[in-house]
């Protein structure tokens, strides 16, 4: 493969960086992920390559997960060549002053996200790091529409950007794993981490489903549902938004998490680290109220779907396939 011409830097992360390049053989722009030459990042890159090749074999048409074109090792840096896509949902939200997506767009994005997850789960794979940064719009094109919920945050807030196309693809399979019995190490980026992961109860596919629930709320509101950096506060936020954690889960916590529980209940607000922390939890609305504030039509369907995705007990959480049959996805867009 002769990639010549580096055009621009598309992104940077702890793993290394992503460059936009021109592939002379295929005559197309590609994205090359250049991984730092450090053992743990190289290992994650090799896992990602293997997972992408497996997914590519089964993903006929290649419209669910990002397509890998090639990979090579250059001076101890693993370089993975991908098709070039548009911005991540997170970047789009950020550049749009964290303003929400219209509900019909959330529906289309949610459907594709769940189709990708159902496809992965069928192959017994668990992504484990679903978040808006790891979901890319296929196209960078957008339109500007009037924003009726005008805030005084910035003078150009009379319009908001809306992606022209709802097509998305999931990226970053460096933490993807095959389903095994009782995996209990910590997975997921904090805001999207399921309760069973925090409580050390072991996790499986359903941790991806929890992340999807958090992502859908974020697309509707523009902001992450659980903005926190510590476990007890995170669990308290969950209780505030979704109601009390089931006692049977709190009773089985592992030794690292038992400090968050007292007499079968969450040790809150007693165990809080600060008054700010208690305030941060108190100001969160219940899930129903949060969605009603931001969604005009089909709020009822969405709330019902989210209650299935964000069920505490992973064995009761709906599956990706069940979610796709939910009435929220049966509506046609206007």
From TrEMBL:
EC number: 2.7.12.1
Protein's UniProt keywords contain ATP-binding: yes
Start and end residues of each Protein kinase domain: 4-329
UniProt xrefs under Pfam families: Pkinase
InterPro entries: CLK_kinases, Kinase-like_dom_sf, Prot_kinase_dom, Ser/Thr_kinase_AS
Top EC class, one word: transferase
SMART domains, A to Z: S_TKc
Keyword presence, Phosphoprotein: no
Keywords: ATP-binding, Kinase, Nucleotide-binding, Serine/threonine-protein kinase, Transferase
Gene Ontology MF terms: ATP binding; protein serine/threonine kinase activity; protein serine/threonine/tyrosine kinase activity
Source species, domain of life: Eukaryota
Catalytic reaction list: L-threonyl-[protein] + ATP = O-phospho-L-threonyl-[protein] + ADP + H(+); L-tyrosyl-[protein] + ATP = O-phospho-L-tyrosyl-[protein] + ADP + H(+); L-seryl-[protein] + ATP = O-phospho-L-seryl-[protein] + ADP + H(+)
PROSITE patterns, per database record: PROTEIN_KINASE_DOM, PROTEIN_KINASE_ST
Similarity remark: Belongs to the protein kinase superfamily. CMGC Ser/Thr protein kinase family. Lammer subfamily.
PANTHER family, per database record: SERINE/THREONINE-PROTEIN KINASE DOA-RELATED (PTHR45646), SERINE_THREONINE-PROTEIN KINASE AFC2 (PTHR45646:SF7)
Record-given protein name: dual-specificity kinase
């Amino acid at each position: 493969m002769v990639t010549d011409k580096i055009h621009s830097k598309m992104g940077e992360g702890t793993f290394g960086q992503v460059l936009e390049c021109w592939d002379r053989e295929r005559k197309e722009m590609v994205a090359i992920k250049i991984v730092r030459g450090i053992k743990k990042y190289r290992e994650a890159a090799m896992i990602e390559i293997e997972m992408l090749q497996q997914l590519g074999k089964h993903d006929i048409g290649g419209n669910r997960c990002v397509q890998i074109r090639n990979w090579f090792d250059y001076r101890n840096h693993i370089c993975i060549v991908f098709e070039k896509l548009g911005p991540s949902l997170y970047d789009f939200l950020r550049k749009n002053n964290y303003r929400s997506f219209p509900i019909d767009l959330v529906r289309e994005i949610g459907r594709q996200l769940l189709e990708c997850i159902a496809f992965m789960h069928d192959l017994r794979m668990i992504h484990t790091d679903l978040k808006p940064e790891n979901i890319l719009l296929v196209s960078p094109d957008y339109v500007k529409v009037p924003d009726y919920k005008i805030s005084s945050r910035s003078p150009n807030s009379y319009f908001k950007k809306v992606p022209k196309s709802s097509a998305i693809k999931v990226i970053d399979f460096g933490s993807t794993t095959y389903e095994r019995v009782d995996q209990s190490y910590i997975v997921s980026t904090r805001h999207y981490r399921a309760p069973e992961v925090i409580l050390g109860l072991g996790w499986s596919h359903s941790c991806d489903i929890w992340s999807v629930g958090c992502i859908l709320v974020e697309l509707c509101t523009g902001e992450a549902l659980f903005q926190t950096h510590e476990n007890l506060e995170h669990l308290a936020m969950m209780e505030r938004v979704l109601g009390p954690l089931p006692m049977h889960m709190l009773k089985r916590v592992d030794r690292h998490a038992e400090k968050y529980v007292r007499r079968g209940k969450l040790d809150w607000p007693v165990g809080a680290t600060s008054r700010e922390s208690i305030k941060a939890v108190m100001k969160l609305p219940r899930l129903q109220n949060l969605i009603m504030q931001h969604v005009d039509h089909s709020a009822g369907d969405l709330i019902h779907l989210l209650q299935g995705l964000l069920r505490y007990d992973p064995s009761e959480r709906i599956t990706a396939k069940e979610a796709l049959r939910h009435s929220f996805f049966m509506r046609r867009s206007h």
